[in-house]
Design brief:
heterodimer; A: alpha/beta; Rossmann fold; 2 domains; six-stranded mixed beta sheet; 22 strands; about 25% strand; globular; B: mainly alpha; ABC transporter involved in vitamin B12 uptake, BtuC; 12 helices
Chain lengths: ~500, ~325
């Protein structure tokens, strides 16, 4: 009997399908990998299993119990535990307190037995093959140590179904190995493990079976020994890469921006060029972009714009030099959610819509109307709150802001992450349009098809350094992955 | 927009309250009473304009009461030293601006939370003044000081005109100046504002300094109503002002709030004390009633936010 069986599950958020038809099965004592591009529906599937969101239709059977209305508490009582990429521990409490909080029940005034807490924590950590001192504060633990504590919590809760969501994203090689040791030990005890990762090598090393999700559908489930990497990539992408990207050949002009060892990165971008930055999460791409834009400047690095050295200590300096930046986390920093669309669009260039500090409302409106049309932002009004738009349209507003300053350089950090397919191709089309106007574009992306489909050159990052810069003609998914993983190309 | 809704419900509450008073205690609407009421609330209104800006940026300033006391005394001392009343007023404004700038510097540059900074300056300024004056009032003011040397009516008109000008300027500036946009952006999302090229530290500094200056002017305009200046004036002013801004619909988390709302908040809270007297209820209830109004306003906000969430307006984010 399977530990977990999901059948024909559908889920949509305000009209956008996150899951169309997903079936998934987890057996006792197996590591079952779940892979797919960003936005394929992995997170939504996990949320349905853990009870965080309710599916629109479909059946869910956990540990032999048909579950009609799942809740986080019910899922936990049926033996489901999840460890996320970002551990959700209480930083100012000790390890043993954190473990105790998730396991102890009873009244508010129950007696707290510190000695039992400590020894149980020590025992659980030992079962997770770790020697973390239970009396340490969680805030002093490294990221992998925090993940181990999360796993210890799951073990303590007698989890039968353990979901690991990108557990190795921030781990080093030896740390990954020790994590695998823990996973193998749990598997031997009959625990079923759902393992989500982008790293195909890892999946090959640890998984027994693999299920591929694409555009909200489960495409295939295979035994790990039956498939090779090329097959998995084909299943994940599911289409010819070049067909969906509107990349056009643009005449590439003179160098616009040159970075000299900014956070250890040296590279040049030319007018009309799209430079893709590939690499694993944590390989230093965002750090480079943030230094370039003056958010966390690197005093040791040098930035040259059209051959002249410029000093960028604040984002305001960068904007003054015609550099725009769309950050990865648009909901937090890319747009001001409480502000209307029109005000967000003009925020980085209030000078363009105002004279001597006085805002010209008519000019602001016409600027915003122009952007809404050009970017096909779907909204009822120019004065709708930006927070009320869909993710894709919010991202377009974040982009509109930078078009208003007529940038020389535009840095895009994961420009289409979490964006629906329609908006995605509109954003790509706009990038091409900007390149044709001579804007130098740096595009950070973790989606290899996007990198391959949009870039003229590709800088592949590995642990804070540029491993290599490839021309689009010589780049392949495989080659980029190899470089990103630190292996020779 | 939710702000408009708040303004409407406040206007409605004020109208209802006034209606009840009109029936039960028509004496409330006597010219003398209304004039006293108006004059007593002018300082609150002027300081509230600064406080609105502070709260819009997501900060708070609880030192305005102490600043008010110091500025009042400075206005009196400079007038006694022979400065024209206009000069005395300018001295009070300058003193306020300096104190506000110190707050702003500590908050914007050293990034100390504003509640901590202004708690410290509230206590330090108040007790510093007590030590400096030994609790003595400023007396023997020159004849040209009280009422600006004008008739009482004329000086009141000047005061009201000044308050109206400040309110109009803040209203207009928040709407039409790039600086006003920067205030809202800083309060809504400081890091997002920074990425858009706004310098939140500068915004905070200016807003606190401006609040200080407005407090100084309010203190000066208040001082000229009397022929002596108590050294413990402005006690509890900060609470009155913050309450008016919050009741007026500004969010303590910053980014939301309007001048019109604050104006109505000042009116509603200002009416309560005198109205109680006219209704024959002990004035001790004033604070309790004000507290209840603040709680009601904040509770309505929280309830509305909840219903909007349930209606699916805050659709969950797809990962």
């Amino acid at each position: 009997m399977p530990l977990l069986s999901v059948d024909g599950v559908r889920k949509s958020y305000s009209g956008v399908h996150a899951l169309r038809s997903v079936s998934f099965e987890l057996r006792p004592g197996e590591v079952h990998a779940l892979i797919g591009e960003n936005g394929a529906g992995k997170s939504t599937l996990i949320k349905i299993v853990t009870g965080a969101v309710a599916p629109d239709s479909g059946t869910l059977v956990i540990n032999g119990h048909p579950v009609a209305h799942n809740t986080p508490a019910l899922a936990r009582s049926l033996g489901v535990a999840a460890v996320y990429q970002q551990p959700s521990l209480f930083p100012h409490l000790t390890v043993s307190e954190n473990i105790a909080l998730s396991l102890e029940s009873g009244g508010f005034w129950r007696h707290v037995d510190w000695r039992t807490r400590e020894s149980r924590a020590r025992d659980l950590l030992a079962r997770a093959a770790s020697e973390i001192d239970p009396s340490r504060l969680v805030a002093t633990l490294s990221m992998p140590e925090q993940q181990i504590v999360e796993i210890a919590k799951a073990i303590g809760a007698d989890a039968r179904i353990l979901i690991l969501d990108e557990p190795t994203a921030s781990l080093t090689e030896p740390e990954v190995e020790s994590l695998f040791g823990v996973i193998r030990a749990l598997r031997a005890q009959g625990v079923g493990i759902v393992y989500i990762s982008h790293r195909l090598e890892e999946i090959g090393a640890i998984a027994d079976r693999v299920t591929v999700l694409r555009d909200g559908q489960s495409i295939a489930t295979r035994g790990m020994s039956e498939v090779d990497r090329a097959e998995l990539i084909r299943l994940m992408v599911g289409r010819e890469v070049s067909a969906i990207y509107p990349k056009r050949d643009v005449r590439i002009g003179a160098p616009v921006l040159e970075a000299r060892s900014v956070r250890g990165v040296s590279l040049t971008v030319r007018a009309g060029e799209i430079l893709g930055m590939a690499g694993l999460v944590g390989s230093g791409r965002t750090e480079f972009a943030e230094a370039l834009f003056g958010i966390r400047p690197d005093p040791a690095g040098e930035v040259l714009l059209r051959g002249e050295r410029v000093r960028i200590a604040e984002p305001a300096d960068a904007i003054g030099h015609g550099i725009g930046y769309v950050p990865e986390d648009r909901r937090q920093h890319g747009v001001v959610l409480q502000m209307p669309i029109a005000e967000n669009a003009s925020l980085a260039n209030l000078a363009a819509v105002s004279r001597r500090g006085l805002i010209d409302a008519a000019r602001e409106r016409s600027l915003a109307r122009d952007f809404v049309r050009r970017l096909q932002i779907k909204t009822a009004s120019l004065y709708a709150e930006t927070g009320s738009l869909s993710g894709g349209n919010q991202q377009k507003v974040a982009l509109a802001r930078w078009l208003a300053i007529h940038p020389a350089v535009l840095i895009l950090d994961e420009p289409t992450q979490g964006v629906d397919v329609g908006s995605k191709s509109e954003i790509h089309r706009l990038m091409v349009e900007l390149a044709e106007q001579g804007v130098a574009i740096i595009m950070i992306s973790s989606e290899l098809p996007e990198i391959l489909g949009m870039s003229d050159r590709i800088a592949v990052m590995h642990s804070g350094r540029v491993a290599s810069i490839l021309d689009r003609t010589e780049a392949t998914q495989d080659r980029i992955l190899h470089l990103a993983l630190g292996a020779a190309a | 927009m939710s702000e408009r809704r708040r303004e409407l419900s406040l206007a409605l509450a004020i109208t209802l309250f006034a209606g009840v008073l009109g029936v039960v205690a028509p004496g409330f609407f006597g010219v003398e009473n209304l004039r006293d009421l108006l004059m007593a609330n002018m300082p609150v209104l002027i300081v509230a304009m600064g406080m609105l800006l502070v709260i819009l940026t997501g900060q708070i300033d609880i030192s305005v009461g102490s600043q008010f006391a110091i500025c009042s005394v400075i206005a009196g001392i400079t007038a006694k030293a022979g400065l024209h009343v206009a000069g005395a007023l300018a001295a009070a404004a300058l003193a306020g601006a300096v104190m506000g700038a110190i707050n702003g510097l500590l908050i914007a540059r050293l990034k100390i939370p504003s509640i901590v900074v202004t708690l410290a300056t509230m206590v330090a300024l108040r007790d510093g003044l007590r030590w400096a004056t030994q609790g003595e009032w400023v007396q023997g003011l020159p004849p040209g000081f009280q009422w600006f040397g004008l008739s009482q009516t004329a000086s009141q008109a000047v005061t009201i005109a000044a308050a109206a000008t400040f309110a109009a300027f803040v209203w207009w500036g928040l709407r039409h100046l790039a600086a006003g946009r920067a205030v809202y952006a800083t309060g809504s999302n400081p890091e997002g504002a920074r990425l858009a090229g706004i310098e939140p530290a500068r915004v905070l500094f200016v807003v606190f300094a401006l609040t200080g200056a407005l407090t100084g002017i309010a203190a000066g305009l208040n001082a000229i109503r009397f022929n002596q200046i108590p050294s413990n004036t402005g006690l509890g002013l900060e609470l009155q002002v913050i309450a008016a801004v919050i009741v007026g619909g500004a969010s303590v988390n910053g980014g939301r709030g309007t001048v019109a709302g604050t104006l109505l908040g000042v009116v509603l809270l200002g009416m309560i004390g005198p109205a109680l007297t006219f209704l024959g209820i002990s004035a001790y209830w004033e604070r309790a009633l004000q507290g209840a109004i603040i709680l009601a306003a904040v509770a309505i906000d929280a309830l509305r936010a909840r219903t909007e969430q349930h209606a699916g307006l805050g659709a969950p984010q797809r990962a």
